[in-house]
Amino acid sequence: MSTQEFQRNRDNFCYRHPDRQSFVLCQRCLRTICPECQTQGAVGVICPECLRDQQKAQSPAQKKAERRWSRPRAVSASAGRPIVTYSIIAITAFVFLLTLIPGGFGGAVQDALYYWAPLLYPEFRGTSQPWRLLTVALVHSGIWHVGLNMLALWMIGRSLEPLLGRGRFLTLYLLSALGGSVAVTLLSFTTPVVGASGAIFGLFGALLVIGRHIGANIAGIALVLGINLVIGFIPGFNVSWQAHVGGLVVGLLVAFIYTRTRAVRQRGLQIGLLVAVGAGLVALLFVPVFFPALIIL
Ligand SMILES: [Zn+2]
Ligand SMILES: [Zn+2]
């Protein structure tokens, strides 16, 4: 889809602000609304027109109760807030602090969460610890490593999460993290890795597909990722370019699915394609078992 085609597809833009791209729909009328037009409803978000209709339909007693017990303005302001982004940053920072605890505890946390492909396969190590495919994104090799990754996550998540919606943003992050681990498995089997870089590069890939339509600060984000890449070449950091490539490819793919399955009637197709991406990545993890000659140690 070219930029012009994309611009012509009105489904991709807020019905009240035709210049603002968004992937979030009003749960009541199913029209596209930008972060500013979203108000958190009981299920999902609703648009200002539906909010007005809903309030009109309320009885005077209901209205009084709502005035007393809720603050619609505050709720409205939080609807576009990147809660998933902030949560991932908080959890990752918390785990990083845990790994700093001396006396063996910090080291034990790191040992339990980092990714090393042989630990996935009973054939190699007599044990299978699949959680490492994702928990690798929680552990980092130092303050600069975690700092740069979280800075990039904050820069991208702030604009991408309100645009995609929380569920799609989280799915993108997790599939990209998985993509990074799968790429390490196939391209650098014996290298132990830590870091959220695969997931972050996935977000960046998605921004390249989606963000060029919304004018996000791609240059600034590219600079942070560039520094991140350079750090990857410093020995002892356990950051692998293989994870970056894997995350980036998955991010591009997932964002492409999002842009092509925008309509309400395509929701089932979108979920099906995302499940297929996840299943495809898991299937690739069987390559070392059935075709060990293909993997790069
Ligand atoms: Zn509506
Ligand atoms: Zn709007």
From TrEMBL:
Protein name according to UniProt: Rhomboid protease GluP
Mind telling me which PANTHER family this protein's record contains?
A: PRESENILIN-ASSOCIATED RHOMBOID-LIKE PROTEIN, MITOCHONDRIAL (PTHR43731:SF14), RHOMBOID PROTEASE (PTHR43731)
Entry-linked InterPro entries: Peptidase_S54_rhomboid_dom (IPR022764), Rhomboid-like_sf (IPR035952), Rhomboid_protease_S54 (IPR050925)
**GO MF entry, a single one:** serine-type endopeptidase activity
Q: Where are the transmembrane segments?
A: 83-105, 133-157, 169-187, 193-211, 218-235, 241-259, 271-296
What kind of membrane protein is this, topologically? Multi-pass membrane protein
Q: Name one GO biological process term.
A: proteolysis
User: In the record, which residues are listed under signal peptide?
Assistant: none
* GO CC, alphabetical: membrane
- Keywords assigned by UniProt, alphabetized: Hydrolase, Membrane, Protease, Transmembrane, Transmembrane helix
Q: What class of enzyme is it?
A: hydrolase
Question: Where does the protein end up?
Answer: Membrane
What organism does the record attribute this protein to? Microbacterium trichothecenolyticum
Chief subcellular site?
A: membrane
Q: Which SUPFAM superfamilies match?
A: Rhomboid-like
Sequence similarity: Belongs to the peptidase S54 family.
Q: What is its EC number?
A: 3.4.21.105
Read off the Gene3D superfamilies from this record: Rhomboid-like
Does the record carry Lipid metabolism as a key word?
no
Span of domain Peptidase S54 rhomboid = 128-259
Give the domain of life.
Answer: Bacteria
